[in-house]
Structures are given as C-alpha cells and as structure tokens.
Design goal:
The complex is a heterodimer of chains A (about 210) and B (about 525).
Chain A: H1 2-24, H2 38-44, H3 64-76, H4 88-98, H5 102-114, H6 128-142, H7 162-174, H8 184-192, H9 201-210
Helix pairs in contact in A: 3-4, 3-5, 6-9, 7-9
Chain B: H1 7-16, H2 19-29, E1 54-58, H3 62-73, E2 77-81, E3 93-94, E4 99-100, E5 107-108, E6 119-120, H4 131-139, E7 144-147, E8 155-157, E9 167-168, H5 169-189, H6 199-213, E10 229-231, E11 239-240, H7 246-251, E12 271-274, H8 279-288, E13 293-294, E14 299-305, E15 308-315, E16 318-324, E17 326-329, E18 340-341, H9 345-352, E19 355-356, E20 360-366, E21 379-383, E22 389-392, E23 402-409, H10 412-419, H11 423-434, E24 445-452, E25 464-465, H12 468-479, E26 485-487, H13 499-527
Parallel strand pairs in B: 1-2, 1-17, 2-13, 8-21, 14-18, 17-26
Antiparallel strand pairs in B: 3-6, 4-5, 7-12, 8-9, 10-11, 14-15, 15-16, 19-25, 20-23, 20-24, 21-22
Helix pairs in contact in B: 1-5, 3-8, 3-13, 5-6
C-alpha cells in the first residue's frame, strides 16, 4: 500500500516537472496590456484587434495620433458626451476615456504602437465596384489605399472592422457623431457623408474599403 | 338584479384578472396535475489512480470552481485562471471596502463594517429544486437560511393607477381574486358556462370559486381578511378593508406579470440564501480547493492542439503558458473573440449568435429599517418605474440598519440608459423613484453602490441572451467540446443567470471529460 502510494507520488513529481518545463519553454510573443490598462483589451481584444460582440473596433491598425485625438474627444465631450443619448455605444467608451489621465494616455498610445497590425475580418459584402466609385472622394483625404493622412487628420480605414466603419458613417449621417460644437474634423466628415445618399451606399463603400491594403 | 355578462365579456374578465393562475388552480381541483420529473443526476468523476491528466480552467466563476473541485478530487491536476482581482464571477456579495470593478466607474462599497450590512449583487435566491447547488451548499458546509422572495405585506405601485398610491400586495391580490371569482360564480349561476360540466361539477366549481376568492354563500365578494384588516382584530372586532374598485385593479399593471412572479418555476417559496452572504458558496469551494486559483491573470490566447490545449495568460506583467489535456472555459462568450484563438469559424459564429444581456442592481444602506415599521420583513415591492423592484433584506431583522436593494433592473433599455449614468446619478434616480413608494426615502440613505453587470470588468454582460433561433441552431454546437476545449457556465444552459445553470453546465462537462478519459484508459488497456 505504502509502496503504491510512493510510486504514485514519483509519477506526480515527474508530471509536475513536465508541466513546469513546458511553462518555461518559449511563450509566443503577445503584447500584453500594461497594468492599469487591462480594461482596454477586455473589449478591444488582446493586442487591440477588436471584438464585434461588444461593439469594439480594431485599434491595431490605427495611428497613435488618431487614437489620442479620439480619447481626448471623448474626454472633452466632443464625442458621445455625458448625458447624450444619440451614440449609445460611444457612451460606453466615454467613461473609459474620461478615467484616463495624461500619463495613462501616453501608456495607451505606447501600447497601441507596440501591438502588431492585424486587419479585421470581413463581414460586409456590398458592391465593390460601386463602392470604388463612391470612394474616389474619400480618397482625397483618407488616401487611395485607405492608408490615412495625418496632415489632413484623416485616419487609416483599411483593415478597420467594416461594421464599425458602417456604424460611424451612419453616426455622421444622423449627427450622433461630429455634431458637437468644437469637433471640427467631425463636422468635416458630416459634410462628406452627405454624398452617401442611397440606402446601400455605406455597404458598397465599406466593402470597397475592405478590399484595400495600404 | 345583477347585470348579465356575455361569455365573451366573462372570458375577457378572467383573462384580464390573471386567469392563468386561476385556471391552473382549477385544473388541480379537477385532478389534472402534470407529473414532476426529477433533475438529472450529478456527474461523478472516476478517480484517475496512477494516471495523470491536466486541466486548465478559465474563469473562477461557479462552474469553473465546481469543475476544479470535482476534478482535483479525482486526481486531475487543475489550474484555475481568473482575469479579475476576485474569485466567484457573478456570485458577488458587497460589504464594507469591497471594490466594484465597473468599466469607467470603479466604486468602493462604503457600507458600515457590520456582518449584516451586505447585499448580494449577483445571485440572491436559491430555489429548493436547484439540486446541484444545494448539494454543494450541504457538502461544503455553507449554512443556508430562508430567503423571503414574496412578501404579501410589500407594496405594489403603478404610477398610473390608484392615483399613484402604493397598495399592499395582499389587498390587491385578495380583491382581484374576489372580484374575478365573483364574476365566474355569476356566470355559472346563469348556466352560461355549464356545458362541459355536470351539475355536480358546477356545484364543486362554485365552491372552489368561493374558497379561492373568499366569497360569501351567495357568491358575492364582500372583502376579505386576506387583504389585511382595516383595523381591530385583537381587542376589538376586526374591520375588513373596503374592497378596491375592480376597474382600478384592472387598470393597475400588477396583474400582468408581477402578481404571478412568485409562482414561477424558480421563484416559489420558500427560497434560500447563504447565511452571511451568498459568496460563502464561493468560499465553500475555495476553502476545499487545493488547486491554484490565479487571479489578476487575463487570458491572452487559447490554442487548440492535437490532444491538448495551449493557454497563455498574463500574470504580473509576464505571459505564461499552460499546456493542458483539457481546457474548461467559462469566460463570457462575447469576450472570447477578443482573445487570440484558433477556433473554427462556426464555433465563433455560434458564440456570436448569443447576445450579452444587461442587468443592474443598486444597494442602499439605510440608517434605519423603516420598512419593518410597515410590517415588511424581507420580500419585494414592485413599481412601474425604472427601478422595477425594491428588496428588503431577509437577514438582520430588527438590527439598527439594513442594506436594501434600491433597484433591480431587467429592462434592456433602462439598463442601457442607467449604465451610462455615473454611480452618483444612478443613486439619485433610485432614491427619487423609491420615494414614490416610501415617502422620505432619501433621508434614510447613508450610502449606496450600483452594479451594472453589463459594464463590469471581465464580464460585460449578464445574462446570456439566446434567441429561439440561436438556441435551435447553436446550443448543441456550443455545448459540444471543440477538440479538448469546453465552453461552459450558465451561458451554456437553459438557465442563464442562475447558479444552477452554471453548475448543470459544469456537470455536463465533467461527465463528458470523464467519459473521454475513461474511454482512453480502456483503449490503452485494449492496446496493451
């Protein structure tokens, strides 16, 4: 009885050391959110690749200047301000941004800079050819490959979650985004989305953006 | 001469006044009671003996803890990984100093440090037929006490009825039943309703109605002691309350759902709660667990491998890997797409088909238990306002203070709206609405805390919302393991939001893992 028990314990130790050695072996590089900013990846996903189930866009493809501006817009009440009811999903983000101090924003941007770019999964299947025609006016600011242009304050679009782009275009159309006094770039986008007049235009243009790679 | 009611009017009356319960009672009277089936037996995991198997459990909610507990007892090597700073998932009792880790609105619970000043922000009531949960409460030495779910002395309030005045539940129910049965009794007497009945049946049904509604011998409702006395009853004769106007009763929203709430499958008396807070159930597991439960360890990656699962989690800034034979995962399914994985597309599509639900509770510490002066000991008052319910603590009766539930919000739209308020604004609105039931409510409030489960860190939802279509198409897919990975928890049950749902799912998984391991063992023996 005693003997069996001892043999079991030996097996047990061998097994434990096997686990420990596997733990010690190379762990694939995954950029973890810094302590204090883990809440970002709960919704936006590990390495910020986005998660449609919680309406969180892909941040991995965005430039840090754009992320910073949006965080500040949320903080300053230029996007989904407290008390507004138009952009309810934006209202989920607003208190997160409001809770960040300057130092935390620097950390967020450093983290966003470090994560690898990953294009979001394609979920929309509009008419790409029609989208291409519509996109010609978008390209003036956002670039022919949707790569974005900081000097014009136009964010990158390629690789972004298509459902998110579509929702933002709708928000610009309804004024849920871009209508706050002081949001000058948002106001510019509000004027630009007027050309998406047909019901399916958003589908088409976003489907075309899906086909772009910078 | 009483006014004659047409059959159509009559049925409308019955339907309007909550006929389902009357019909149910009548069917019992006629001997048509459905058979009761027992719950499925619990899983029992065969001891491994000298064999070794490893399991990584993702999430230290009830299903995760139960799996680790059962598997380690059978000789499996278990590690539990938990993203949050705390163990227990949505089983959360808030006391003095506890952190409410809400996204964007971190709160600290400022209740007095007193054993009775707590509230169960998650599961709060245990039905008597939730066998697996009760099994664990019993075997893990978690003392239980009766929980008052329905209290006929509590208030029912509809802003648009009775001039917005709250009514005692017992008075409403007694009068509603009285009038309803009186109408039925009249219908019988008029022989409009006797076609399927013999004379004897009709007579029995008449007597049934009299008993059910407390009617006089002529079948007239004259008020009832069930409504509570107006006065007297001890040293002077009791005076019955004057019955409410039946039209006003029908105009009140209480009969639609609320009146029958406590007859629900999971709401019937008596219910139970853990003495000292329902998180003692969590403590019951952790006290008896030897396996490590690593907190503050969000999962980064779940990779299916041949006969194994690779999990990477981050702990204290370092990514760590566990390679286990099985991975049992109770992370909310809507957060899993945000974790690196190599799951097949249909598995992810199945997860995405289930929407995250919304639920909010607000706890208020009251300087005195003013409700007890109104004969209210435990239970729930109802209102048509956005706070929906007010709960009175069952525990700590006659203490100086108490923590009551100032809101329990089920409505999706209200939850979306309230989650976007600051905690201070939520308390203010709960107090304002509570004052409609308890005048001067605000003066008792010392401090409060709100828990918006759909905004809690690492949760972002409660409870899983399955559409009928998603159920048909994906439930079995999600219940079935993908390789060595199992998704579990109340989200993979027909009882989302209940601990028994979580534990039933856990036992389903335990049973399946056990069968697979035993089959492997047999295979090995055959090969040898």
């Amino acid at each position: 009885m005693q003997r069996t028990h001892r043999r079991a314990s030996t097996c047990w130790l061998a097994y434990l050391s096997a686990i420990l050695s596997s733990t010690a072996s190379a762990v694939p590089e995954i950029v973890a959110a810094p302590e204090g900013l883990r809440q970002c990846v709960v919704c936006h996903g590990v390495e910020l690749t986005g998660n449609r189930s919680v309406d969180a866009p892909n941040l991995s493809v965005l430039s840090t200047w754009y992320i910073e501006r949006q965080l500040l817009n949320y903080k300053r009440g230029l996007r989904a301000p407290h008390g507004s009811t138009d952009d309810l999903i934006g209202r989920e983000m607003q208190p997160m941004a409001a809770a960040l101090d300057d130092e935390s924003i620097v950390s967020v941007l450093a983290f966003a800079e470090r994560v690898p770019e990953r294009a979001a999964l394609v979920t929309m299947m509009g008419d790409v050819a029609r989208g291409a025609k519509l996109y010609t006016s978008c390209a003036a600011c956002h670039g022919v490959n949707g790569e974005g242009n900081q000097s014009l304050s136009a964010p990158r679009l390629s690789g972004q979650s298509d459902w998110y782009l579509a929702r933002q275009l709708e928000n610009y159309q309804t004024g849920a985004r871009g209508a706050e006094p002081g949001d000058i770039w948002g106001a510019q986008m509000r004027a630009s989305v007027a050309m998406l007049s047909d019901e399916d235009d958003i589908d088409h243009v976003v489907s075309y953006i899906n086909s772009l790679s910078p | 001469m009483p006014r004659a009611y047409s059959r159509r009017e009559f049925l409308n009356w019955i339907g309007a006044a909550g006929g389902s319960s009357a019909v149910y009672q009548a069917s019992i009277g006629l001997g048509l009671i459905p058979a009761v089936t027992l719950a499925a037996p619990m899983a029992s995991v065969t001891e491994l003996g000298s064999l070794r198997r490893s399991v990584v459990v993702l999430g230290a909610g009830l299903s995760g803890l139960a799996c680790a507990y059962e598997l380690e007892r059978a000789g499996y090597t278990c590690t539990v990984i938990e993203a949050s700073h705390r163990i227990g998932g949505r089983n959360m009792t808030l006391r003095s100093g506890d952190i409410v880790d809400e996204m964007g609105h971190r709160q600290v619970c400022e209740f007095d440090d007193h054993p009775n000043l707590y509230f169960n922000a998650g599961p709060a009531r245990i039905p008597a037929h939730h066998k697996i949960l009760l099994h664990y409460c019993k075997t893990l030495d978690v003392p239980l006490e009766v929980f008052v779910n329905e209290n006929r002395h509590a208030w029912v309030h509809d802003s648009n009825a009775f001039d917005g005045q709250p009514l005692r539940m017992r008075a409403y129910i007694a009068d509603a039943r009285g009038f309803m049965t009186e109408l039925m009794a009249k219908a019988i007497n008029q022989r409009d309703f006797d076609a399927p009945f013999t004379d004897q049946d009709a007579e029995r049904f008449f007597q049934f109605l009299r008993a059910y509604g407390d009617l006089d011998e002529k079948g007239i409702y004259q008020g009832s002691s069930r409504a509570g006395y107006q006065s007297g009853g001890m040293l002077v004769p009791a005076v019955h309350k004057t019955p409410f106007d039946f039209r006003k009763i029908l105009n009140h929203d209480f009969w639609r759902i609320k009146m029958h709430w406590a007859e629900g499958e999971d709401q019937a008396s008596p219910m139970m709660q853990a003495v000292g807070g329902n998180d003692n159930i969590v403590r019951g597991f952790t006290k008896n667990l030897k396996s490590p439960v690593i907190t503050n360890a969000p999962v980064q990656s779940i990779m299916l491998r041949d006969k194994a699962v690779d999990v990477i989690y981050n702990h204290q800034g370092i990514n760590k890997r566990i390679n286990a034979d099985y991975c049992l995962n109770c992370i909310p399914k809507h957060l899993i797409p945000g974790i690196h994985n190599n799951f097949p597309a249909d598995y992810l599509e199945a997860m995405a088909s289930v929407k995250r639900g919304k639920l909010m509770k607000i706890g208020l510490q009251m300087s005195e238990r003013f409700w007890e002066k109104q004969n209210i000991y435990g239970g729930i008052s109802w209102t048509d306002q956005k706070i929906e319910q007010i709960w009175y603590p069952t525990h700590g009766i006659h203490d100086a203070k108490g923590v009551m539930l100032g809101a329990y919000i089920f409505n999706d739209g209200t939850n979306a709206e309230y989650a976007r308020l600051t905690p201070v604004e939520r308390l203010a609105t709960a107090i304002e609405q509570g004052s409609k039931i308890h005048a001067g409510y605000g003066k008792y409030v010392e401090t409060g805390v709100s828990v918006a489960w759909h905004r809690m860190n690492y949760m972002m939802g409660c409870t899983a919302q399955w559409s009928e279509e998603a159920r048909q198409r994906w439930f079995e897919r999600l219940q079935r393991p993908e390789g060595r990975h199992y998704l579990m928890g109340d989200q993979i049950s027909f009882h989302a939001g209940w601990q028994e749902g979580a534990l039933s799912s856990a036992h389903y998984v335990l049973d399946d893992v056990n069968q697979r391991v035993q089959a492997e063992l047999k295979g090995n023996a055959t090969n040898a």
